[in-house]
Amino acid sequence: MLADKVPESKAELDARFTELYRKHLRDVYSYSYYRVGNHHDAEDLTEQTFLQAYRHFERALRESNGRPLRPWLIRIAHNLAANFYRDRSRKPESAIEDAGLISAPHTTEALVEGREELKGILEGVARLPDDRREALIMRFALGMDNREIARALGRTDGATKVLLHRAIRQLEGMVAETTNNGSAD
Amino acid sequence: MSTGTTDFEALLRQALTPVEPPADLAARLTATLVNLTELAQEELEAWELSAMRDPRNWVRPAAAAVIGAGAGTALVVLRVRSRHRVRRQQSSNLFELAGNTLHDFAEEARRVLPDR
């Protein structure tokens, strides 16, 4: 766990940043991957995120008052991803094959059905409004709690709780609709 | 909370499983972040004015001068390194490559370290 005291030497600051980086590399990469939908751009976004974080690390430590820095890191990734889309004028791809479907455990019998179900969910996530999609990625891919998500998105805890609830309801409706349409065909 | 909701959230958790970063990304970032600032500072400390009379010595100290100021160092170098292949393709000889590399350092430093 990171100590609360702001480091006084450059060496100590670098050591603290290395600790932060090792602890949250997977979080930042997972967030990036689900935002951009491919490994190449996710690597780029992850690199940029940590390097931006490195530049502002000392100030972030000072201003965090001992609170976890993961929301701050994810907020950097969030801002960089927004620039990524603005620069390239494109929407996120749905991340399916490399992430959820392959690494999630499946029984042999449920494999085909499970793949379709998860595929439907991921396609639904990709179609959600940006803020709802991001909230779901933070909650389910990164395991962030409401307070962390609120800090990353710059919202209140209450607004974040409502956002998550609505995101899940909307996605559930989208998946059910797709399933019903598929059954009717 | 209903069972349906709980089941759906379990599915969501399964669909949005964490993604492991590629090993080469982790290794590259780790090496850069841990070593870069120290290396740049050592480069500056070892910078002797006499060495600057030889243009072949310009690239490394110039880079260290640009990047050695502290936080932000790694960002400049990584961005410049990421464009190395492009610069090689655009350069017809080593001198041109060195010039393009210096130009990129200056550009990236201006973008990343605007207050320095």
Q: Please give the most extensive interface between any two protein chains, plus how many residues each contributes.
A: A-B, 47 and 34 residues
Structural class of chain B: mainly alpha
Total number of domains of chain B: 1
Q: What is the CATH class of the largest domain in chain A?
A: Mainly Alpha
The CATH homologous superfamily of the largest domain in chain A corresponds to RNA polymerase sigma factor, region 2, helix turn helix motif
Structural class of chain A: mainly alpha
CATH architecture tag of the largest domain in chain A:
Orthogonal Bundle
The backbone outline of chain A, from C-alpha atoms, is: elongated
How far is the first residue's CA from the last residue's CA of chain B?
54 Å
From N to C, what is the helix and strand string of chain A?
A: HHHHHHHH
Structure commentary:
The complex is a heterodimer of chains A (185) and B (116). In chain A, 78% of the residues lie in helices and 0% in strands. With 185 residues, chain A is mostly helical. By secondary structure, chain B is an all-alpha fold. Chain B has one domain (21-112). Chain B has helices spanning 3-15, 23-45, 59-67, 73-82, 84-90, 94-112. In chain B, α2 (23-45) packs across α3 and α2 (23-45) packs across α4 (73-82). Chain B is elongated. The relative contact order of chain B is 0.10. Chain A binds chain B through residues 10, 14, 17-18, 21-22, 25-27, 29-30, 33-34, 39, 42-43, 46-48, 50-52, 54-58, 95, 98-100, 103-104, 117-118, 121-122, 125, 136-137, 140-142, 168, 171-172, 175, and chain B through 5, 8-9, 11-22, 25-26, 29-30, 33-34, 37-38, 70-75, 78-79, 82, 112-113.
